[in-house]
Amino acid sequence: MLDTLLLSRMQFAANISFHILFPSISIALCWFLLFFKVQFNRTGDEIWMRIYRFWVKVFALTFALGVVSGITMSFQFGTNWPGYMKTVGNIAGPLLGYEVLTAFFLEATFLGIMLFGINRVSNRIHTLATFLVTFGTSMSAFWIISLNSWMQTPQGFEMREGVAHPVNWLAIIFNPSMPYRLAHMLTASGLTAGFLIAGLSAYRILKGDHKLAPRRALKVALIACGLLIPLQILLGDMHGLNTLHHQPAKIAAVEAVWHTETSAPLVLFAIPDEKTQRNLFAIEIPHAASLILTHDYQGTLQGLDKFPNDHPPVKPLFFGFRIMVGVGMLMLIVAWAGCWQLIRTRELSPFMLKVIVSMTFSGWVATLAGWYVTEIGRQPYLVSGVLKTVDAVTQVAPQHVGISLAIYLVLYATLLFAYVRTLFVMARKAVLVDRPDELSTLQDQLANKRIAAEARV
Amino acid sequence: MNAMTQLNGEAFWLPVIFISLMGLAFFVYAILDGYDLGVGILLPADSELQRDTMIASIGPFWDANETWLVLGIGLMLIAFPSAHSLILFHLYLPTTIMLAGLILRGVAFDFRAKAPEDHKTLWDHVFKAGSLLASSSQGYMLGIYVMGFEQSVSAYLFASLSAVCVTAGYSFIGAAWLVMKTEGELQQRAVRWARLCGWLTALGIATVSIINPIISPTIFEKWFGSAAVILLLIIPAMCVGLFILVDRYLKHFPYPNDFGCWIPFASIAIIFLLCFIGLAYSFFPYVVPNQLDIWQSASAPESLRFILYGAAIVLPTILLYTLFSYRVFWGKATHLKYY
Fold this sequence. Notes:
The structure holds two protein chains of two kinds. By secondary structure, chain A is mainly alpha-helical. Chain A has a domain at about 5-175 and about 380-455. Chain A is about 75% helix and about 5% strand. Chain A has a two-stranded antiparallel ribbon. Chain A has a two-stranded antiparallel ribbon with strand order 3-6. Chain A has a two-stranded antiparallel ribbon with strand order 4-5. Chain B is about 80% helix and about 0% strand. Chain B has helices at about 1-5, 10-40, 50-60, 60-80, 80-90, 90-115, 120-145, 155-180, 185-215, 215-225, 230, 235-250, 265-285, 295, 300-330, and strands at about 285-290, 290-295. A two-stranded antiparallel ribbon of chain B has the order 1-2. In chain B, helix 2 (about 10-40) packs across helix 13, helix 4 crosses helix 5 (about 80-90) and helix 9 (about 185-215) runs antiparallel to helix 12. Chain B is globular. The model of chain B has no long low-confidence stretch (mean pLDDT about 85). Chains A and B meet through helix 2, helix 3, strand 2, helix 13 and helix 14 of A and helix 4, helix 5, helix 6 and helix 15 of B.
């Protein structure tokens, strides 16, 4: 029987997973837009503005989905996790408050000017609006990552009568894991947006778009990804070491280290078995885990046996981490191979274009997998060492949570389908922009289809 | 009330400041998202051109308008966390339905313009349905809240009445927004909508105002228990005056040079303000009627102080750039183009 706790966790996971898809694109997509706009201002080259115009529409759609799914988040704490605010509300509240005050209004207000105001304000104000939206989205990431990191590595507070009270705000905001997580997430967004731009642009070229705009956008995005991916691997390594220091149980689960050991091997693949506490079908590289995590060939890794009944589940962390790293490696290969082809021949081969199209949403996979690792890795705690998840959940009847979860799931599946489909429809429309003949044929076809449909009714 | 006398200084004032800020946020939300939800509810089935213009009139604003809801609910979460939990516990399902409505509406706005052409009408329906769902569930929640989360047939009836009332109110201010922001045939149509919704809203507000003191002795006592009743009755009197003003104005529409096209919108905003003052006066100092007052549910002073410093700087800035944005898009709505 599903209880309120499990249903609430599933609902939170569904909400936050759906939500993060859109900020993970929009945070960095906005920086790309700012780059396009600045390039246009600098060179006066119309092509930059065409790229801007196409991608600002994608941004508007993505942003709208981010806003509406974000509103849901602000209600979740009260509806499903009352114990959370009760225990750490004094700390979480202000951080969330600053996100609303310094980010949400800024982005939402100037988005209107950025989208629809270009003929109503001067070019300079329009560039400023683009910058303010960009700044707002990154600011929003800053506050929410700060709060999330505080839940992972809490400090700067004291407990009085079971309630956390702030002592040092700077220590709370800049808690130990915060800089790493923020850098890791912003770079992840850069890669997610980069591969989206590259993927849709490659799709347009494959569909016979002869214009310069998609080629230039593809080039910019591919180069950006080629630069970001090694940076991301470096940041990921630093973040991992930081986690090893502060949350050793999480790393033990990620690496499926059941018993404390020296010269630990790196498990490339295995099926971790919680019951017998060992790895089945393991493929290992000797000494490698010790080398990566302690930077010492014979370093000691703490095993899960050090944290009896107090460590996260192993399987989701073990596989989630490997999916993230695997996609990251794919990104590295594709981005560098693409850049290499561009340098050598200044054009991408049809095969390369197809590969890039297939990578359009790779950023989503890696981002979600990474977040699952870090969030499930905090279990059984909601706030490490302070509040257990089980103690924070609501008293609402499981039936009600079941109903709301079902509503959300249906809604999210539909919207995700519509979102992805719309992106490709927009790309196909863009292909036909400079071919009025074919565009009108397409519209005729649609009109005929509609007339036929009405005739049937 | 005894808690009030024991507290002094910061512990007394901070919750008062925050309940005022929260009230302000919800009030601004009701006006701003009120008109764009109203426009969504009024979308006509028979004219795509009019739908385009109506949606164009709210296009640059709706994102920011919804943010006021996040601010309001956020302030409650920050300043009165136990009230936030208690209220949302009781309103669990209506909240979910409202969120689903807001989600559908927000995405329909973008999908209608970008999805394949033959899906546009479908997304317009979704837009309308989402707006209706969000408004009526907000009204329903307000009703249940006012009844102190009582679970009885009369409470549900009252909440349903409140749902109709809020939906009518949003449509009213939405129609007034269209009177202000559009011209020609659509403007004429909006005038007819506004008159109809105006009557409905007036009826709703009157019924709620009469029922409320009858069922709640505390509220009766507050309104009619002292000599201040003369002063307090200014509120309903002004409401009646404004309703009549709007109706008279609309009856003789149109006027040369579009004279006073802003009068209905401004008047309705004041009516909303008066209703808000009435509600606030009825319930202060309770955040959850008769259960939890603002001092019992307030967060630690050190947290409230930290957020207040920021709010004191940022909120005026937000108001300034919101005004700037409205100035940029001043005048009659034109066709929405992304560049």
